[in-house]
């Protein structure tokens, strides 16, 4: 269990991180992807949830924003559960593509998208989710997202969905090309609506951190005790987040930060530290790769200053620890 002293220490560390980065990085912002967020550049939330349910929030953690590509994590999780690892792998790979997230490019050797964290792969993952109708598929993925976050009233923002469907030409092009190549079958527009419906669900930074904590806790939501995903599939999902979750900047992320994570063009990032906690940030200003500028800066400092890189040695880990070797490690007692 997280002690009172450690809970207070982590809160202090997160507040320092938030304060340090809140007024910086404006010059590094290339774009804000969503038109509705153009006036939200200064919104900045940082939240964490430990595997014992302890939570920390700093900044604008109750602001709701669309999941966008972060929803790919949940869609892929359900595709794995519905089809098994081997069948899913035949349809969508696990290799980083090196291309932008919306690239019209495939793994030509295996006739499949490179991975489920880019648009082509996410469209195939939506196709693989079981269900006879669009509504059934959306309902099943949404139910799984509710289990991951512990929020029973999450819904699709239908206005946002309509906007996204009206500007989906590139995703339609990817979909029709994949159907022509035999990667998917059936109604292309329904499948696209499944994918974009999940992109259009709004969450808070705190709720997103619970999704990360559920993965960190082996698939069991630490707040509700509900199992959201089998532990074996959790390993697959977190592994793909590590290798493919940060678009075409994943190599730099893995080297510099070394924490499994998934970003979305709305400005969210969710990260998973297995056995310890989930962390999430929201700030809508993006870099050229489509990743949140402030969010990345926070995670880089978590890695550099507090030793949360997956290859950091125990003596380098300072986050939530009361000294070099003493104190708990944000794990269950």
From TrEMBL:
It holds the Pfam family Glutaminase. Its EC number is 3.5.1.2. Homotetramer. PANTHER family: GLUTAMINASE (PTHR12544:SF29). It comes from the Bacteria. It catalyses: L-glutamine + H2O = L-glutamate + NH4(+). Keywords: Acetylation, Hydrolase. InterPro entries: Beta-lactam/transpept-like, Glutaminase. One of its GO terms (molecular function) is glutaminase activity. Belongs to the glutaminase family. GO terms for biological process: glutamate biosynthetic process; L-glutamine catabolic process. This is Glutaminase. Substrate binds at residues 69, 119, 171, 195, 247, 265. The keyword Acetylation applies.
């Amino acid at each position: 269990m997280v002690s009172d002293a450690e809970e207070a220490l982590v809160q202090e560390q997160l507040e320092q991180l938030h304060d340090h980065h809140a007024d910086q990085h404006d010059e590094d912002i290339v774009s804000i992807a969503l038109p509705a967020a153009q006036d939200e550049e200064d919104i900045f939330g940082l939240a964490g949830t430990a595997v014992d349910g302890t939570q920390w929030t700093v900044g604008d953690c109750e602001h709701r924003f669309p999941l966008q590509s972060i929803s790919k994590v949940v869609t892929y999780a359900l595709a794995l559960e519905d089809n098994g690892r081997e069948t899913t792998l035949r349809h969508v790979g696990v290799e980083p593509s090196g291309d932008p997230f919306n690239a019209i490019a495939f793994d030509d050797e295996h006739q499949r998208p490179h991975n489920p964290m880019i648009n082509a792969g996410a469209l195939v993952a939506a196709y693989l989710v079981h269900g006879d109708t669009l509504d059934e598929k959306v309902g099943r993925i949404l139910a799984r997202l509710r289990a991951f976050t512990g929020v029973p009233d999450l819904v699709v923002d239908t206005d946002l969905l309509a906007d996204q469907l009206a500007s989906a030409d590139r995703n339609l092009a990817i979909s029709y090309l994949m159907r022509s190549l035999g990667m998917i079958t059936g109604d292309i527009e329904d499948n696209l609506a499944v994918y974009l419906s999940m992109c259009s669900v709004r969450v808070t930074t705190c709720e997103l951190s619970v999704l990360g904590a559920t993965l960190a806790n082996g698939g069991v939501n630490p707040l509700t005790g509900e199992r959201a995903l089998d532990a074996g599939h959790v390993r697959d999902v977190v592994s793909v987040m590590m290798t493919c979750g940060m678009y075409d900047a994943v190599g730099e992320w893995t080297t510099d930060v070394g924490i499994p994570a998934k970003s979305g063009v709305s400005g969210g990032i969710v990260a998973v530290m297995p056995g310890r906690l989930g962390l999430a940030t929201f700030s809508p200003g993006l870099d050229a790769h489509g990743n949140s500028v402030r969010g990345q800066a926070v995670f880089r400092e978590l890695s550099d200053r507090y030793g949360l890189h997956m290859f950091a040695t125990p003596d380098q880990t300072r986050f939530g620890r009361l000294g070099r070797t003493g104190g708990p490690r944000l794990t269950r007692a």
